[in-house]
Design brief:
2 copies of one chain form a homodimer.
Chain A (H helix, E strand, L loop, with lengths): L7 H20 L6 H13 L4 H8 L3 H13 L3 E5 L7 E5 L1 H21 L5 H21 L2
Antiparallel strand pairs in A: 1-2
Helix pairs in contact in A: 1-5, 2-4, 2-5, 3-4
Chain A binds a DNA duplex (30 and 30 nucleotides) through helix 1, helix 3 and helix 4.
Chain lengths: 144, 144
DNA sequence: TCAATATGGTGGCAATTGCCACTTCATTAC
DNA sequence: GTAATGAAGTGGCAATTGCCACCATATTGA
């Protein structure tokens, strides 16, 4: 079946959904879902973040972050502590449990990327990655 | 805020969610949601399709297509008729109402694409589009 | 021919997400 | 200092999606 008349919107949708299914399956062994894994990754990357910072970096609604972070606290992957300077905000930090799965989660992401780019040359892969990042940053910058 | 330590998985997620929000807003004037618009586009592209063909082309679960198609029939954008050769399948065809919005939906998709690639050169835009399509096709081919 | 298997489609349930209204605390303007 | 505005976070609701069990019809194999 040829995929003529295709457009980038459809491609992005397919890549998003499939990569989430892959990541969900890959993370099940750690009792994590894909969105939980993404938050652990970003919290480990930055060591300390507020919920609002996560919201901005992932460009997700703040209520979505609140729900996922609550669950991650319950399951012991992160710790929340009230910020001393601003009592409205939480400082979010990874626990040892998070640091333990961190390298495996990065590996899972890598597997996803390799899977969807397996027909690309190394140059194409690097260029695609660069342009994806450029587009995502452009998109984030658009909203105020 | 610098977006260091970023990865393509996160970029794809952001692009998917934002483009859907944009398309939803753009399609509201036609009383359509983004997923409904995508199905109208593909049905108009191919003139006649079964639900299963839509499922394969969009790489969505068949029950999702069934639900959306049912709604589109109720709102008069498509017609379902039982296939003569296989009574289990429907032939799905666009109505005049679908053909009327079709060019505008294509325009909306174009606006989305322009928005997220506005910092790219024409060459980069074309290359990104090509690689997106390649990755999406690779992804679809992976599942059996 | 007839049983076993495969395929297209439907309905139910749970998870993720987006939007909105709301609370609490900070900051700004007067 | 106090009122008005803004920002961080929460909870509720609806829409989309994925998975599973199921039904009806085709196809295959003995």
């Amino acid at each position: 079946m040829p995929y003529i008349m295709d457009n980038p919107f459809k491609s992005i949708s397919i890549l998003y959904r499939k990569s989430h299914i892959w990541l969900n399956n890959g993370c099940a062994q750690y009792d994590l879902t894909a969105p939980q894994a993404v938050i652990i990754l970003i919290v480990c990357d930055f060591k300390t973040l507020t919920q609002d910072e996560i919201t901005k970096r992932l460009s997700l609604d703040k209520s979505v972050i609140a729900k996922t972070v609550t669950k991650l606290e319950e399951t012991g992957f992160i710790i929340r502590s009230t910020n001393a300077k601003d009592k409205r905000t939480y400082d979010i930090r990874p626990t040892d449990k998070a640091w333990k799965v961190y390298p495996f989660l990065k590996e899972e992401l890598d597997i996803c990327f390799q899977r969807m780019t397996q027909r690309m040359t190394d140059d194409e892969r690097a260029e695609w990655k660069r342009l994806l990042l450029l587009a995502a940053e452009t998109t984030i910058a658009l909203e105020d």
